[in-house]
Specification:
- The structure is a single chain.
- With 193 residues, the protein is mainly α.
- It has seven helices and five strands; from the N terminus they run E-H-H-E-H-H-E-E-E-H-H-H.
- A three-stranded antiparallel sheet has the order 2-4-3. Strands 1-5 form a two-stranded parallel ribbon.
- It is globular, with a radius of gyration of 19 Å.
Length: 193
């Protein structure tokens, strides 16, 4: 069975379903660590298997996760992510205040998760090989662009990321690690610090 579809594009119903921090965490764990059971996921996040099972079923109703037919039994159900990534297009929800609020909740939780990963990296940085410390980094540029230029920049950078995703290092490469790429491309009227 090949790779799952790359993106799950959120609509009004799915953005509301995903706007729950626990569901986002479960989905992230399944994408990062691979298939798991409600019990194992519950242990990872400090919740009961009943709670995680409920939220996994909700995620399955929305098409975010599915049962893994290659693992488990009726008593020991294994779940996996149905997609590699979720695409949130906030402009799609501007005409529906409730859906837009849900998309803000989803994006806010994703940003919190990204900040936790950056904080984790900063705490662990001294324990990593110099090559990784030199390769990793953060940067920011303040540009003056039109909406069309901003869209073009986003798409162009995403094409580069996809090219690297398609050419991932083999699992058995001892020099390879998982790498997270973040992008925040937002207009600002005034910089606040």
């Amino acid at each position: 069975m090949g790779h799952p579809p790359k993106f799950y594009e959120l609509d009004d119903a799915s953005v509301r379903l995903l706007a729950h921090p626990l569901r986002l965490r479960l989905l992230a764990l399944l994408r990062h660590d691979g298939p798991s059971t409600a019990t194992r996921l519950g242990e990872r996040i400090g919740e009961s298997s009943g709670v995680t099972s409920y939220h996994l079923r909700k995620l399955a109703e929305g098409g975010f996760v599915e049962e893994d037919p290659n693992r488990g039994t009726k008593r020991d159900r294994w779940w996996r992510s149905s997609h590699e990534a979720t695409k949130v297009s906030p402009a799609d929800f501007l005409g529906d205040p409730a859906a837009h609020r849900a998309s803000v909740s989803v994006r806010r939780e994703i940003n919190r998760w990204q900040q936790r990963l950056v904080d984790q990296w900063l705490a662990e940085e001294a324990d990593w090989d110099k090559g990784w410390v030199d390769a990793a980094g953060s940067s920011d540029w303040l540009l003056r662009l039109t909406p069309a230029q901003t869209r073009a920049l986003h798409d162009e950078v995403l094409d580069v990321v996809r090219r690297y995703n398609d050419a991932e290092a083999p699992e058995d490469d001892p020099d390879a690690e998982r790498v997270v790429w973040f992008q925040h491309l937002i207009p600002v009227r005034e910089l606040s610090f």
